[in-house]
TrEMBL record:
Name the UniProt record assigns to this protein: GH3 C-terminal domain-containing protein
GO cellular component, one term: cytoplasm
Residue ranges occupied by any GH3 C-terminal domain in the UniProt entry: 294-394
Signal peptide interval: none
Gene Ontology molecular-function annotations: acid-amino acid ligase activity
Length: 408
């Protein structure tokens, strides 16, 4: 039933969640002490705690004094997923935190129907009123990247007037979705116009889910076709989803590089970071602005200590098609190298002066090279939900092979 959750209407649920937030944040220190004591009491005799001589104590002071505290990151910035131990209680707490996000956000913007690009490995998640999205569960759970993206994009377009928010875990997910639309809008329009589904989507559960909501809509097909055939893709999100009032995605840290591109495609829609997604490192090479017509679509780097003495850094750039020919000339690349080196920190510049680091090198890769990096990572078992372009790659790796194959 729309507006209901476990028999409770939306406003009552929102009030309950907000009251809960007020209560636990007002007693945060007290609650953390209770949680730690509960964990320590339940695990008093485990081998790990025994080796530190905690001797059954459950107070915070004793724990901090004798047990080294550490955490493991997701490792997604390096391109390698890390396994983080999790318990049933931990998973429940994560679900609780997620359920608290929308009640807060709904105080400022409309949080109804969303076109949200997702990819999940398990359907074992309770229904959440705030997770009302255009994608049926089977399209989200599909492990085939093309079929999942195509079906989710099609469902998002079919409900374009209902969409209030457009999102993905990271802004790169939305940008990839727009690029996917650029490549496949003709097929999508055909399916919308005829009420049929691309034969390439052959997963039966996905086909059943999409065909259950698909019917011929020539007017919508004409609209999508007209917008996609225009020379510019600026503001395409506003144009196809006219009622969208914000973007939901993480745009901090290494994601900040993509903010100008996100603004371009969204037509300046505000971006809401619903969760804080941190990584184990940060990138020095965050964003570049040049006095010539160059737009860096994506980038990564490599510390080359084998081909030259002293070693030097290599930056791989993928540029947009506009101005690509002139941008890749040697004179322009030399200016780019100088501009980037000038923007790096004092330690780097000092080592360059004394000859401890060789001149920076920039290599231009073919359009689509970074998409191949993502596809390789996903085929190796990583989740598209968590994928971020690695900002530094190792010399002897499959990723380097992809970069060099597309480089010049």
């Amino acid at each position: 039933m729309v507006g209901k959750y476990g028999g409770m209407d939306f406003e009552a649920l929102k009030k309950m969640k907000l009251e809960y937030i007020e209560d636990v944040t007002a007693r945060a220190d007290e609650i953390q002490k209770e949680i730690l004591a509960d964990i320590l009491s339940k695990n008093a005799r485990v081998e790990y705690l025994s080796r530190f001589g905690l001797d059954g104590r459950t107070d915070r002071e004793s724990f901090k004094k004798v047990v080294p505290v550490f955490f493991l990151s997701s490792g997604t910035s390096s391109g390698e997923s890390k396994i983080i131990p999790a318990t049933e209680t931990d998973n429940k707490l994560r679900s609780l935190c997620i359920s608290l996000v929308m009640p807060v956000l709904s105080q400022f913007v409309d949080t109804k129907k969303g076109f949200y690009i997702k990819n999940l490995r398990s359907s074992d998640r309770p229904y959440d009123y705030y997770s009302d999205i255009t994608s049926p569960p089977d399209t989200v759970l599909c492990t085939d990247v093309y079929q999942s993206m195509y079906s989710q994009m099609l469902c998002g377009l079919l409900q374009n007037r209902q969409v209030i928010r457009v999102g993905a875990p990271f802004v790169t997910g939305i940008i990839r979705a727009v690029r996917f639309l650029q490549d496949h809008w003709s097929a999508l329009c055909r399916d919308i116009r005829t009420g049929s589904l691309d034969p390439a989507v052959d997963c039966q559960s996905v086909r059943d889910a999409v065909l259950g909501m698909l019917k011929p809509d020539p007017d919508l097909a004409d609209l999508v076709e007209a917008e996609c055939m225009k020379g510019s893709w600026q503001g395409i999100i506003r144009r196809l989803w006219p009622n969208a009032n914000h973007i939901e995605a993480t745009a901090t840290g290494t994601m900040s590089h993509y903010i100008p591109m996100m603004d371009y495609y969204s037509g300046g829609l505000p971006v809401a970071n619903l969760t804080y997604r941190c990584s184990e490192s940060f990138s020095v090479l965050a964003r570049w602005f040049f006095p010539f017509d160059i737009h860096v679509v994506d980038y990564t780097s490599y510390a080359d200590v084998a081909s030259t003495i002293p070693g030097h850094y290599v930056i791989y750039w993928e540029l947009n098609q506009k101005g690509f020919g002139s941008a890749s000339s040697s004179s322009v690349m030399e200016q780019c190298c100088l501009a980037v080196e000038d923007a790096l920190n004092e330690e780097y510049r000092e080592r360059r002066v004394y000859g401890h680091i060789g001149p920076l090198e920039i290599k231009i890769v073919e359009s689509g090279t970074f998409d191949k990096l993502m596809e390789h990572a996903i085929s190796s078992g990583r989740s598209i939900l968590q994928y971020k372009t690695p900002r530094c790659v190792k010399g002897e790796s499959s990723m380097m092979a992809i970069l060099n194959a597309g480089g010049s």
